[in-house]
């Protein structure tokens, strides 16, 4: 398990920090060329009504914020339509509470639909309209536990949480498939390009169990 502390976010940016060993362009998985699934099992630790960012994909933003006292969610995503990129904000009424939950974001390319699950419950769906696409960014990367890099000094929204599973796939996975992978009942990793149990790690690096070398690194920052 990993404990992500407030003001100490972690970074998935293999093109920059994996020394050329990484495979499969994991950052571009979320730009609509294929189906995708991102699923993370988390227990929120940060308390209070203020916005706390669970993760944020930059520079073409897609992220999940935790809000209010009992941990509702706010999904933010940049979409492109008529050559213009705009962010849309979707508040999710369902509460996470303070236990471990699987939070899953999925995209189905054939019908251009995004949905979000809390465990096995579908809590959000968005159907892209005609001409609308997921936005494309330059060398996209994901920050866990903040909305931006600490040195930028804005939109940080630090969040502390425990996690013991993260998977990223180019397939649209069901909750049962995700659960089987987590419980190691399914050793087939077809389509999975990043898998992390947060046990194979150092103080500054989390290993990718797929062998694709899409490592997650702790952001080292000093004022």
Gross morphology is globular
CATH architecture: Sandwich
Radius of gyration: 16 Å
Average residue pLDDT: 92
Would you count the extended β strands for me?
16
Main sheet? 9 strands, antiparallel
**End-to-end C-alpha gap:** 28 Å
How many structurally independent domains? 1
CATH topology: Jelly Rolls
Spans of at least 5 consecutive residues with low confidence: none
The computed structural class is mainly beta
Counting DSSP H or I runs of 4 or more residues, the number of helices is: 2
Under CATH at level 1, the class stands as Mainly Beta
* H/E element sequence: EEHEEEEEEEEEEEHEEE
The level of helicity is: under 10%
Measured by DSSP, the beta-strand proportion falls in: 35-45%
Describe the structure.
The protein has one domain: Jelly Rolls, CATH 2.60.120. It is mostly beta strands and 223 residues long. The model has no long low-confidence stretch (mean pLDDT 92). Strands 2, 4, 5, 6, 7, 11, 12, 15 and 16 form a 9-stranded antiparallel sheet that branches. Helix content is 5%, strand content 42%.
């Amino acid at each position: 398990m990993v404990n992500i502390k407030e003001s100490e976010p972690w970074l998935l940016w293999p093109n920059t920090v994996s020394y050329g060993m990484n495979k499969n362009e994991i950052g571009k998985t979320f730009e609509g060329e294929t189906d995708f699934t991102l699923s993370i099992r988390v227990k929120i630790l940060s308390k209070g009504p203020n916005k706390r960012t669970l993760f944020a994909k930059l520079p073409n933003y897609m992220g999940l914020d935790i809000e209010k006292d009992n941990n509702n969610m706010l999904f933010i995503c940049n979409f492109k339509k008529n050559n213009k990129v705009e962010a849309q904000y979707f508040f999710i009424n369902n509460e996470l509470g303070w236990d471990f939950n699987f939070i899953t974001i999925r995209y189905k390319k054939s019908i251009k639909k995004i949905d979000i699950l809390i465990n096995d419950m579908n809590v959000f769906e968005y159907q892209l309209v005609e001409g609308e696409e997921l936005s494309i960014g330059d060398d996209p990367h994901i920050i866990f536990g903040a909305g931006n890099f600490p040195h930028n000094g804005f939109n940080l929204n630090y969040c502390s949480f425990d996690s013991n599973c993260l998977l990223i796939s180019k397939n649209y996975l069901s909750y049962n498939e995700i659960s089987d992978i987590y419980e190691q009942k399914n050793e087939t990793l077809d389509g999975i390009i990043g898998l992390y149990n947060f046990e194979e790690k150092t103080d500054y690096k989390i290993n990718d169990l797929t062998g694709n070398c899409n490592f997650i690194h702790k952001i080292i920052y000093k004022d």
